[in-house]
Structures are given as structure tokens and as C-alpha cells.
Design a protein that fits this description.
2 copies of one chain form a homodimer. In chain A, strand 9 (about 290-300) and strand 10 form a beta hairpin. Chain A has helices at about 5-20, 25-35, 40-50, 70-80, 85-95, 105-120, 170-185, 190-195, 205-230, 250-260, 260-270, 320-340; strands spanning about 55, 65, 120-125, 135-145, 145-155, 160-165, 230-235, 275-280, 290-300, 305-315. Chain A contains 12 helices and 10 strands. With about 350 residues, chain A is an alpha+beta fold. Chain A starts with a helix and ends in a 6-residue tail after the last helix. The interface between A and B is medium-sized, with 32 and 32 residues. The structure holds a DNA duplex (30 and 30 nucleotides).
Chain lengths: ~350, ~350
DNA sequence: GTTAGCACTCTTACCTTGCGAGTGCTAACT
DNA sequence: AGTTAGCACTCGCAAGGTAAGAGTGCTAAC
């Protein structure tokens, strides 16, 4: 059923007020602040909206509170994207790029900025590296029985470990090994490399094979896994203490227990779809998130690797504002990664 | 003034009871559970103990609570170190070493185990690397205008970054550069390296100098700082919600805000003395920690580098138990690091 | 020096009460 | 038919009052 224009306006007013104050909104308040008719009229309309499932009543005698259905309608139809002003954009960019040396660092920074602006709990996860391929493998002698295993990926990421050997290895052996490994692994994605067995390619050189098998392979696998690893950055956790909905110690506890299970969070958020995605309360598959809203957006590295950032907060959140910021930040990240992947500019 | 034996026993009883229950302890309770006389007698003694500053009174009509002075006395004189049983030790060791691949990982794991056992907020910080020296510097070509800068420290730690160059560099230039850098930096501590200027050593090779100055030096400095960096791992943050002293939302908030300033925490805890160190309430120089107790202990790497781990909790904590666990864990870490630094064992 | 007894204090839980905000309904108005 | 004023009613919340319980401090007897 289509809502009349006035019903829509009233609904919007209730939502706006409730998002601002966290208090149930009464008919008088709406009547005073908006030109939508007398309290009695508003009451009648509100009653209808309640019947339609857009508003609820905490108790008979208190004002109305928007339902999830209302938020959904708001997000889909009524919310006007608040384009950030140039000053806001500049301020964000300044914050984002200040103090940043490594790209990984930029991701962390994005979470920080996001939480500062939205006053919510923000997170950012680094790109999933499944698509990244190996370019280059190197073995460097350090001392007689220590070498360094070094993997260079197409994306530019470098990872290494010190490996201790059973017995000294000649430079020649190391050279052969590295050459063989590079030959066999380069061009393969990290995950493919994990499942590729190259032992058989050593038939010419028993010594190299033994060394690979006994000393290098374990470190190699570990390093690959490390490169694949996705990092989660969270910031603004304590912001929830400012929210009236978390004034209850049990609520706060539940929230903190949820977000401290980083593995879970990473999986839940990482598996969300691309683009800006808003899930409201019960729309979250996760029981534990059923009274939160989550807004995420994805950024891209090299057009393939995908990372995410977003916020977790109460269903009462400034959807418009948060959406704009999240979008602007992911745009910036994507741009930053494109710059360094390809040609560097001279700024 | 010396306390009589009975006063000591009563004090100990009050402390034990209060640590267990978090409730002010009355004279009847003590009288019933310990053979120390009638309630009235206990009351008189308690009154004396209060005058001496060992006990306080939340209100006229409630039981006694130990003062910080009492905890200090308890920790110094009365607490008997509870040696862990072999089973406990085994269980801890099993937990500690499960799932550990890298040493850095072991530190994180130690914080986890510590928080699980003590039900407090635990932390561990990786060793300060001030004493670590550079062994070896390498520059590896990746493609025409990308190289990898790689630093190897005496401790075995390896760190690297991809460096983009203004213009292509010949292998020869890179070789000269790497050789020169190694010659000038090896043997220097990381901090010394940061303050050493080697530009002048390039007088023979203008090209190498320019490249070092324009492209490599910034990355070099960044990488050094990264190697120096100490990591902080915290675990069991949500444990504080189980403590009655943090049932107040403001208390919880303050605590979380404190521990989320990781830089501060790192500095405060990192600068503590060696060995097992217990600071109680106001003994903490930090205002914000003035109603917490902190127990830390240090572990050693290679006899020089020092890392720390410990717990933060209310002044009412099981000092004996926590001390034992903290000690056992640092012993284990020191041992683990000794093993891998020197000769590997074959387990 | 130790203990029993007792008055007193203070906290806590519980109940009552009154107020304010807000609703729902009815009836009058446009 | 839609809108509005009026009014009784509901409910949550804060304030005040009371009773119970735990514990102390003091006095006097053992």
C-alpha cells in the first residue's frame, strides 16, 4: 500500500527526531516542529502508521519509535544522500593521509577517521589476497645455517621469514632452489601456491629437494598464509558508551564480546556484498547483530582485490551521513591503491 | 609499629574474604570462619587496624575493606607464593604453544592464556629492540623501477619494503649501494642507524648517492622505525564486565578508554622495571590507574632484549595466583626465545 | 583481655504517591 | 470526510517513606 504524502512526511519527521534524540517521539513534538497539522491529526496518522508496521509503541503512553521497516523505507526511498561539502572532504582527506607511510597503514587510518566522524564503531579490513599472484621468490644466505625466504607478490607485497637449516647450504644450492621455486610458483595465486607440490621437480638435485622438504616448505607455507591473511582494524569501540541504547551494562558487555571475536567479525563483514550495503537490525543474519545496523562499502585494489570498511551501530544511526562518509573513504582508498599500484604521481 | 599476630591473622582474613567476595567484611563473618575470637574481639582489633590505616569503612555501618597499605603488606609479607601444580603448568604450556608458528605469535598467545587464567585484562609487549643491531642490508631488483629494501638484524628479525625509484637503477648501482649501506650500518643498533648519516660516504658515486638520498633513505628510516617498534597485545578486555567494581557504566567506560590508547599503555607498561613488579592503586604514577593494580613481569631474548607481560585489574585481585602465572609465563617465553635464538632443539 | 548485649547508623529494597508525557476516543467544527 | 479540541486514561519515573538487615561502637560484666 502506498503511503499518503503526509504519512510519509510524518514518518520522516519521527525518524529524524528519533535519530537525533533517541527518545520516543510524541504527536505534539511533530505538530510543533513541522507544519503537518494538529497533534490530534498527527496522532491519527501515527496510529495508521503503526498499524502498517512503520512505528511501534514502547508502552501505551509513550511516543512512537520507528520500526526496522521504517528505517528500511527511509534508507531506500526517503534518504537524500548528503553530499559532503568540500571542506568536509578536505578535512577527511587531511586526516586520512596524515601520518601514513604504508598502505596497510592507510586502511587502519580509514577506520580511525570513520569512527571519529560518525561517533560509531568503525572497522576496515585489508583486501582479500586470494587473487594476488607470486612474482618472485628469493633465498638469501644470512649465515652458515640461516637463510631468508622472501616472497614478492604481483601486488608489490613482500613477505619473508628467517629459516634455520639442518646443515649449511651452498650458495649454489640456494640459487637452484630459488630458481626452481620461482619457475614453479610465479604467476600462481597465493592459494594455488599453497596446494601445489613441487617436490617432484627436484629429481635432478637430491640435496635441494631434501632441503626444500625439510626446512623450507614449512616456512614457505606459513609465509604464504601470512600473505593471504586479511587484517582487521577497529576503532571507536568506546564510542558506544555515549549511546543511550548501550547505557545498560549488559548491552555494552554483549557488544564488546561480539567485537572482540575478531575472527568472527572479519568473516561476517568480509563476506558482505560489494558496494555500499546497509543492513538494519534483524536484516543481519547474525542473531547478535539483530539490534544493530551495519553499513559497509568496499574498495578495490588493482580492480580485483577487495577490502571493506564500515561501521556498526544502533539501528538509530545517521544513515545519510554515514553512507556519504563511508563512500567517500572507500573512493579515496581505491584511488590511493591505484596510484601506488600503477604509476606513482609526484605529489 | 608491629602488628600482633592476631591482628595480622585478622587482616589476612579480611583481605582473603574481600578478594573473594568484593563485599565489605564484617566481624561476625571472620569470627565464624576463623578461630580468632568473638565478633566483639574482632571488632576491637579491626578498629585498631583501621586506626593504623590497614582497613577502611565505606560507611559507619558496613564491614571493613582493606586499604592499599593492607594489600601492600599482604603482597610483601603475608602472601605465600602458590607454586603452580604440574598439571596447571602443563595445561598452561599446552595452551601457550598450541597454534604457534612465529615467536611474535607466542607473545600474543601469552596474553591470551594469561587473561583466560586470571579472568583479568592481560597484555604482552614484544621486546624493545633498541639493542638489536643490523647485520645485513640488501637491495633486490623487482622490476625496472621497483626494488626491495631488506634489513636483517642480528636477532634474526627481517624487515623489508618495496621502494619505487624515480628512474631505473642498474644492478651495479644497487650492488654498490647495498654494499656501502651494509658496510656503514652493520653492527650499529637500530637507533644508532637512525641517526647516522652516510651520504658523505658516496663521494665516489654520485648516482648511488642521489638514489640513496631521494628514494631509499625515507624507506630505510621507515623500515628501521618499524623494526624498532614494539607491539602490544591485549586480551580479556571484556573480563572486566564480570567484576562488580566495574558494574558502573562510567567506570567501565573509563577503563576502556584507558586501554584503547595503546600508545600510552605501551609506554606506561614498557617503562616498568624488570622482574615481577606489583603496583597497587595509588602506587601507580598514573592517575587513571589509581584504582587498579598492575602486575608485570619481564622476559628476555638473548639476555638483552626485554619484553613484558602482565595484567591490569582491580586492587582486589588474587595477587598470589596472578604472580605465579605471570612468572611461569615469562619463564616460558624467555626459554622459548633462547631456544630459537641459539641452537634449535629437535622437538 | 575477652565477650555479651544493646542502641545506633546506614544501606537497600520495597511500596506509595504524584507528576508529566502521551495516547485514544468522542464530539464538534470546517 | 477530514481536522481539531477536549478529556479521561495509561504508564513510566522520580521522590518520599518505611521496614529489614547488616554491622558497628560502646558499656558492663566475665
Amino acid at each position: 500500500m502506498d503511503l499518503t504524502e503526509r504519512k510519509l512526511k510524518i514518518l520522516q519527521a519521527v525518524i529524524a527526531d528519533f535519530i537525533r534524540t533517541a527518545e520516543p517521539v510524541g504527536s505534539r513534538t511533530i505538530s510543533k516542529n513541522y507544519e503537518l497539522g494538529s497533534p490530534a491529526t498527527i496522532r491519527n496518522e501515527m496510529s495508521d502508521l503503526e498499524e502498517l508496521g512503520y512505528l511501534t509503541h514502547p508502552h501505551t503512553s509513550s511516543g512512537r519509535v520507528p520500526s526496522e521497516k521504517a528505517y528500511r523505507l527511509y534508507v531506500n526511498e526517503m534518504m537524500k544522500k548528503t553530499e559532503l561539502t568540500q571542506e568536509q572532504k578536505d578535512a577527511i582527506a587531511r586526516d586520512l593521509y596524515s601520518n601514513v607511510t604504508e598502505l596497510e597503514n592507510l586502511i587502519e587510518r580509514a577506520a580511525h577517521v570513520l569512527s571519529e566522524i560518525t561517533n560509531l564503531t568503525a572497522f576496515a579490513i585489508s583486501p582479500r589476497k586470494e587473487q594476488d599472484t607470486l612474482r618472485y621468490i628469493n633465498l638469501l644466505p644470512v649465515d652458515a645455517k640461516t637463510i631468508i625466504l622472501m616472497l614478492v607478490a604481483e601486488s608489490g607485497k613482500v613477505s619473508n621469514t628467517a629459516v634455520r637449516l639442518d646443515k649449511p647450504a651452498s650458495e649454489e644450492t640456494l640459487r637452484i632452489l630459488a630458481k626452481n621455486m620461482t619457475y614453479n610458483y610465479s604467476g600462481k595465486t597465493l592459494s594455488e601456491a599453497l596446494t601445489t607440490d613441487i617436490i617432484k621437480t627436484f629429481k635432478a638435485d637430491a640435496e635441494a629437494m631434501t632441503m626444500f622438504e625439510n626446512n623450507i616448505a614449512p616456512s614457505f607455507i606459513r609465509t604464504l598464509e601470512d600473505m593471504l591473511n586479511v587484517n582487521l582494524y577497529m576503532d571507536g569501540l568506546t564510542n558506544i558508551f555515549s549511546l543511550p541504547e548501550y547505557n545498560d551494562i549488559e548491552k555494552a558487555r554483549t557488544f564488546f564480546e561480539l567485537v572482540s571475536r575478531k575472527q568472527d567479525i572479519m568473516q561476517k563483514l568480509g563476506s558482505r556484498g560489494d558496494g555500499v550495503l546497509i543492513t538494519i537490525g534483524g536484516e543481519n543474519e547474525d542473531e547478535e547483530l539483530s539490534d544493530c545496523s551495519v553499513i559497509t562499502a568496499s574498495y578495490h585494489v588493482d580492480g580485483k582485490l577487495v577490502g571493506k570498511l564500515g561501521v556498526i551501530g544502533p539501528t538509530r544511526m545517521k544513515y545519510d551521513e554515514v553512507t556519504s562518509v563511508v563512500e567517500y573513504l572507500t573512493d579515496n582508498l581505491s584511488k590511493a591503491f591505484r596510484l601506488t599500484e600503477g604509476e606513482e604521481d609526484d605529489s
